[in-house]
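ARCHIVE CARD
CATEGORY: sequence design from structure
SOURCE FIELD: tokenized fold
FIELD CONTENT:
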């Protein structure tokens, strides 16, 4: 009986590994196809000023509120993982992502930034109704990174906007706050991304906040039971318990990067070394020996982090690109034409 149980367990593991390998092969094939369709000079003749127009809208919004920076980067991440980089994350309606419990707190400041950028682009007669919301979001994500201290990089363009909302699939498409390394790697591999890509993209948490409900179990494991996650720095734990008491407000939040929360740098990885990662899915990157070396490398070498982040963003931006009748160029980013 024990031998049969071991064989059964081994068979399940082999099937799971095979499924991940097949998913990765498919994701890589689709990414290669997307790369062939996208181009850094896609709008050279139809809207040559698109990058300047988007950058201007980003600059203006960030002068009003810093919140738009991490919010816009998060919008791009979520957009690409849920249905591919097709601006479905921006759709407003009964089936949109903002109605889904897994993502009810996407920043309204980020949505406003993209709306403004779209208006600025369409106000140019040469560009009107020629640039997709998906491309505008990709450009805006790059610009908020560079304008908060991160790297400036070229963005591949040529995406079309999707025609379907995201609510039905959002909960199964995004990494959970309590994911372990295996879960994170499986989800990212399904989208053609490696463990190094995943750790680099996680560095986007160097700016922005998270709400108490995403990490409160780590503060009170005796209340949360299972899922407390990796251990936390004791002093930091006490500090976070003041921020998020057991009777915390739904709007209460804490900075994801306790070192430099308003600057895009490698401080996030240093917080993980100090056991000050708020989300279990962040702290596990240092807690698990299989990923710790990469965390240490990025914590010590900001240039290496920036290079890896840029490479991972390019790969992420090719996920699920829509073409032909599968997509459109929306006149209004929050609804299909």
């Amino acid at each position: 009986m024990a031998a049969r149980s071991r064989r059964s367990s081994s068979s399940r593991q082999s099937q799971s590994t095979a499924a991940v390998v097949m998913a990765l092969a498919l994701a890589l094939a689709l990414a290669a196809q997307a790369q062939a369709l996208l181009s850094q000079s896609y709008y050279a003749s139809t809207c040559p000023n698109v990058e300047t127009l988007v950058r201007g809208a980003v600059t203006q919004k960030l002068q009003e509120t810093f919140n738009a920076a991490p919010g816009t980067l998060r919008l791009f991440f979520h957009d690409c993982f849920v249905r591919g980089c097709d601006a479905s994350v921006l759709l407003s309606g009964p089936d949109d992502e903002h109605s889904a419990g897994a993502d009810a707190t996407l920043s309204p400041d980020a949505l406003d930034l993209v709306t403004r950028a779209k208006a600025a682009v369409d106000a140019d007669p040469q560009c009107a109704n020629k640039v997709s919301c998906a491309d505008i979001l990709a450009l805006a994500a790059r610009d908020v990174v560079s304008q908060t201290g991160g790297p400036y990089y070229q963005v591949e363009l040529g995406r079309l906007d999707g025609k379907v909302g995201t609510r039905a699939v959002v909960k199964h498409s995004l990494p959970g706050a309590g994911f372990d390394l295996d879960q994170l790697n499986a989800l990212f591999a399904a989208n053609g991304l490696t463990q190094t890509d995943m750790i680099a993209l996680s560095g986007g948490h160097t700016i922005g906040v998270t709400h108490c409900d995403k990490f409160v179990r780590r503060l009170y494991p005796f209340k949360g039971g299972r899922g407390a996650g990796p251990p936390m720095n004791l002093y930091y734990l006490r500090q976070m318990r003041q921020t998020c008491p057991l009777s915390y407000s739904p709007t209460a939040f804490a900075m994801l990067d306790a070192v430099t929360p308003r600057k895009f740098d490698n401080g996030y990885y240093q917080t993980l070394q100090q056991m000050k990662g708020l989300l279990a899915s962040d702290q596990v990157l240092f807690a698990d020996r299989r990923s710790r070396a990469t965390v240490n490398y990025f914590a010590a070498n900001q240039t290496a982090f920036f290079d890896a982040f840029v490479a991972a963003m390019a790969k992420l931006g090719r996920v699920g690109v829509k073409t032909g009748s599968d997509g459109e160029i929306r006149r209004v980013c929050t609804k299909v034409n």
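CARD ANNOTATION: The two ends are 60 Å apart (CA to CA). The chain has two domains: 50-174+317-326, 181-316.
SHELF: design records, drawer C
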